Each structure stands twice: as structure tokens, then as C-alpha cells.
Amino acid sequence: KMLQNVHLAPEADEDDLYSGYNDYNPTFDTEDLENDIAFQQAARTSHGRRPSVTAKIPGTSASRPLATGIGSKATLTSSMGRPMTGAIQDGVARPMTAVHAAGYTKAAMRGSSFDPLGQARGPAPPLEMKNSDSSEEKIRQLEKKVNELVEESCIANSCGDLKLALEKAKEAGRKERVLVRQREQIATAENINLDLTYSVLFNLAGQYAANEMYAEALNTYQVIVKNKMFSNGGRLKVNMGNIYLKQRNYSKAIKFYRMALDQIPSAHKEMRIKIMQNIGVAFIKTGQYFDAISSFEHIMSMSPNLKAGFNLILCYFAVGNREQMKKAFQKLIAVPLEVDYDDKYISPNDDPHTNLLIEAIKNDSLRQIERERKSMAEEYIMTAAKLIAPVIETSFAVGYDWCVEVVKASHYVELANDLEINKATTYLRQQDFNQALETLKMFEKKDSRVKSAAATNLSFLYYLENELAQATNYADLAVNSDRYNPAALTNKGNTVFANGDYEKAAEFYKEALRNDSSCTEALYNLGLTYKKLNRIEEALDCFLKLHAILRNSAQVLHQIANIYEIMEKNPKKAIEWLLQLISVVPTDPHVLSKLGKLYDNEGDKSQAFHYYYESYRYFPSNIEVIEWLGAYYIDTQFCEKAIEYFERAALILPTEVKWQLMVASCYRRSGNYQKALEKYKVIHRKFPENVECLRFLVRLCTDMGLKEVQEYMTKLKKVEKLKEIREQRIKSGRDGSARSRREGNAGGDSGGTKGERLSARLKALPGTSEPYESSGSKEIGASYIDPLGPQAERPKTAARKRTEEDDFADEELGEDLLPE
After folding, report:
1. Which residues form a coiled coil (predicted)?
2. pLDDT at 547 over 50
3. Which of 1, 76, 310, 685 lies deepest, with the highest CB count within 10 Å?
4. In angstroms, rounded to a whole number, what is the distance separating the alpha carbons of residues 704 and 712?
């Protein structure tokens, strides 16, 4: 290996290869080694520890010069005098027979240090840059861009931005076409990426369908389906069938579903079942129930599922086949749910490891899926039972009993009680309260959950019948059976509210909300309770929370507007909420009249007239609205138009002279004195003692120069005199009543008897008027105790006027009490 640092000098005589055997080998000359720099350096480094490079066998080599670090040269030969391999003799190099050693280069001859790893050469040169102008590289970049656009389109669709998703899909389609053209230019058509083309077209069709651009989606799907190079393109006919179903083109939808079904191999059983279910639904849409029945029957025999079973019951119900309805119901109940029951999540022992495991899986995502599946199954079964129970037997009660027996024999035993409660609610809808009560009373000895539901409904029924004692008893039973039942707590609060204990009612409503924050009935009733307690800010807070849950509830919007009106701080807020309310109930005359009143208070007569007129248009019997409209036309000097409204008021209240006088006054103001005179005469015949009518008759007859003026003047004097006498009698009656009370206070029992006699005499006087009557009633009612208490504190009865609170408690609350 030392040959790397040796220069071989050729011999002068190239022909004598065996000469020099007796020459002195300078390698063994050690006299000058101390002065040899190259040798000393080799001795200090790993060069000196390497084995000798001289041949161990005799060789034929001529002597050759040895080059050292200082340039000295000597003839180097092997120990046998043979020239070394690679030596140059007579200008011709002997062929090398050894591998070029690592780390030895010609640079060592120039005094370089030993560097076997080549570290002295510095970092490796940079990689050769790709040629971005090459066609292959451009195609690769374009293909990458198309894939990115498809991904962005799918992400935008999942985020709900359908417009952006469609734009990205279109851009991906354009770039993919450019990519295909470039590939065709530089290579054969076999190099085209069909998978990329398929994904681009498929995504574009899906985005068209998502944006309801059905024609474009169908055209794109046709491009895929008709291209024979796409092996599974025929399956997309299912998507085309779905589009036709959305377009209500049911015959074409069925056609494409069947074409897709023909192209799905029998190995894909689940896919074929789903397509057949779509075919059955399309047949139901077209009214071809028997064809739909054949599809669903095949599904129930091959792979039964809840949707197919429920649809089969609907079809048999549509054709009126009772026996088949029963069989289909039994098939629906027999569908396996493939879920674990609650027993699995109950720990059999106190093993901490087992308990920890059960706690971990009790509410995981798989458990939630199982709950959803079970809830869906119960909903299908309950709906099917309620649908077929009235028609499968002679009466709905017998039908319900059959459904209950079938359910009890299945693994849905707990649904039997819910069906019984549904039976009671059906009796309620039929106004058969006695049967409903009997059915619900059967649950008093059942388990707590069912007992609570039945007692809640019983409380509600008795509340509707104003039997507050019974309603309270059953409300207590419902609460005691299940303290966490929000409907029971709400009913209990209602019974307390009806008895006037608003603070306690509020506590029950709050407890119901703590158990179920989504109990809107309790939240609404709590707001009404705060209104009764005059805690307006808290009431407003309740109704604003409720508005966040029920955005379009007319009752909630009305309550918020009413509270702002009560607060009187910002009437414009009340107007804003009422405007929202009329967007929900645009034909409610009371809301429209309320808006008119608020605008009138604000001084905006034009808006007030608009809403008052709209209210009159929907309900032309509201006296307040009629009076305002008539007064508005009089103020604006359109008395002829006011006549129409006052005449309607006179028709509604024919015993009140006020409206007929207003009609006559309008005739007089408009200058039609003849009509006014005739109207006053008619009024005088109906109300001969009306002083105002006689005064206008006298004035009109005087102005018109009629002879009847004297007659009416005489009648006017008599009526005025009679009125004066009555007023004197009323005044003397009041003075006597006050005197008797003073004497009674001074004289004890004797004075009291005198006062009673005076009161009796005053009552017997003819022509009593309202002031006297109110005074008399005071005297009589002073010693009388109403057993029901003051009128304001009485419980609700059927005869008293219903309020908004009553309407809510009777109607809205009842919806929550029905079993789920």
C-alpha cells in the first residue's frame, strides 16, 4: 500500500528484465532514515504500522527509484530483485494487480495528511436541480394541484360551504382536462390517470347535487356511467335515482334503481338491500302499495331492519289488510337490535377494576349509538302501534290491548306501559274523560316511573276540570313517585299557582328546571309567576331565555312585548317585539290593535291608523278599534267615512245610545242636516228620555224652521226637570246614608238599626242610578263574608274569564305530559 507515494522510474534497458539481481537494495540503507522527513512522518502515524508491501515470493523486477518526501529517488525492487507491480520500465507501466486502497490519493505526494474518510474535501456538492421546464415535471405538479382541489372541495362541503365546494370542484375539472391534453401530447393515451379523472367527475357531480343543480349533476353522472373505462361506474345509477326521487320523478327513479341493482353482484348483500328499500319507498310515493309490499317483504325475509318493517306496516295500513298488519307488527318487534342491554353496565361485584371498566364504557360513543338505536326502535314500535290499534280490531281499545300483549311477549316489555298511557291520551282526544281516568288509575300500583307518568296525567285532567283538590292530590303522588319528573313538578306548581301561592309555585318551577333545563313549560310558567309577584326584570329574563329556545313562539313574543309595555321605559322595544310577533301571527287582530295603540301613544297617527285598520279588517267587532277609527276620520274631517264605523258599533251594541248619536253627529258635521234630523228622530223614539238627543232636535228644528221645535222644547224641559229631581233624590239619599252612619257610630245598636231602615228606604226609591246602587251594595256587603274569599283570590272556575296564564297551563303544559 506504500506504492501510492512512490514514483516508478523506467530502466534504461527495457530488454533485460532479469538484470540487477546483484545490485544493492537502497531500501535497506538505514543511515539516512533520521533525515528522511517522509519516513519520520510515516513512523509517527498509522503509515508506520501497516504491513510491508513487498512481495513474499520471488519476482522478476528491475531495480526502481524510491521517491521520498524530500524528492530523493532510489531504485526500488523486491527482495528477490524483481520490479514492483506497477513499475515503469522503459516508459511502459506494468499492469496493476491490486485494488486501489481507500484514503490514498496522489495528493499524498504533495505532502497531504492521511484522510481516509475524505473529510478534508468539504461538504458534498448540491444535488442536481430538477429541470422545472420538463414536461413530466409540469404534469406531476398539475396532477398534485388537481388532487389538492378535490380535497379542498370535499372539506368545504363538510363545513357547509356548498358554493365554495362547487367552485373548487369546477376548477379541479378544468385543470384535469388540461392535464389529460398534456399527457396525450407527450405520451400515449394509456398513461392517462383514470382514477384521478373518475374522482374529479364524481366529486363534481356530488357538488352539483348538493347545490340542487340536478340537471348538471345528472349530466356529469352520465359521463361517468357511459364511459366503459370506469369499471364500477354503473353503481352511480343509484345516485341518479336519488336525484330523480328528489325531483319527484318516481318512475325514472325506480328505473335507475333497478339498473343499479342489476349491476351490483349478489356478494354485496347490504348494498342490494338498501337499493331495494329505495325502490320500495319510490313505490309508496307513486301509490303502488302492492309493489312496495313485495319489495319490503323480500327485505324482511332476507335482512330484516326497522325501517323496512315500519314501511311494510304503512303499506298494509294503506291497503287495509288487518291480518297482514298484525303479522308485519310482529315482524317489526322481532327485528334484532344487536345492542347490549342495561344489565351489562351493572357491576356484579365490588371489584374496583371491573367497576372502573364499566364506568368507562357506560357512556362512551358505542353506548350512545346503542341508545340511539334502541330509542329509534321504540319510536317505530310506538308509532306503528298507535297507527294500527284503532283499525286492527272492532274498537281501538281492543286493538291497543292486542298491541300491548304482543309487546309484553317481546324484549320491549317496558313499552307496554307507555302504550297503556297512549291509550288514555286517545280517550282524552275523544273527549272520553271517564275512560281516560279509569285507564290512568290502573297505574297507581305500578312501579314509580309509570306511576309518576300516570299521576301527572291525572293531575292534568283534574286541573282542566277545575277540581283543584284532586289535581293537587295526584300532583303530590306524581312528585313523590318520581321527584325528578319535570312534568310532575310543573303540574304541582300549577296547582299551587291556582291557589295564589306564587312564591311556592316559583320554587316548584325552579326545581323542574334544575331537573330538566329544557322544560319550556316550567320556564314559561316561572315567567308568569314573576309577573304576578311584580318581579318584572326576572320575568323578562325568563322569557328572553325561552325565546332563545323557541324562536317563533307567539306566546313568548307576546309576553316579552307586554313586559316592555309594563315597564314603560322604552315603548319602542315593545313595538319591536310586537312587530316580530305579527311576523309569526300576521292575522291576529289583538296584536295589531296593540301595535296601533302603542303608535298612537307615540304620536305616529299614520302607523296607528294602519294597524288599527288591519285589526278591524280581521275582526270588525272590536268596539275599541271601531271607536278609534271613527274618531280618526272625524279628526281628519272625513265624517262621511266615520259613519260606517259608528253604524257598525250601533249594530253590535244596539242598547247604547252613544253610537247612534255619533252617527247623527257625523251627518250633522258633514252638512247633511236632513239625514241628521231623521236619525235624531229615530233615536228619540228608542230613547225618549235622552236629553242630548232632544237638545239636538230642538237646535236642528230651529235652524231649519220646522214646526216641531215647540214640541221638542216641551219634552226637553220635562226630561230636564225629571233628571233634576232624580239627582236631588240621589243627593239626599247619600246625605241620609252618611248621617245614619254617623248616628250609628254615636248611638250604638239603635243607630245601626236606624241606618239599616234608611238604607232600605233608599233602595226602594224609583229611578236608581249607578252611584246609588254602588252605595247600597256597600251597605249590604259590609256584614257578609263570601265563603270563597275575595274575588281576586278565588281559585279558577269554569265560569270566570280565562287569562293567558290559564290558556298556557291548560294547553301548552298538557303537551309535555303525554308519554314520549
Report:
1. none
2. yes
3. 76
4. 14
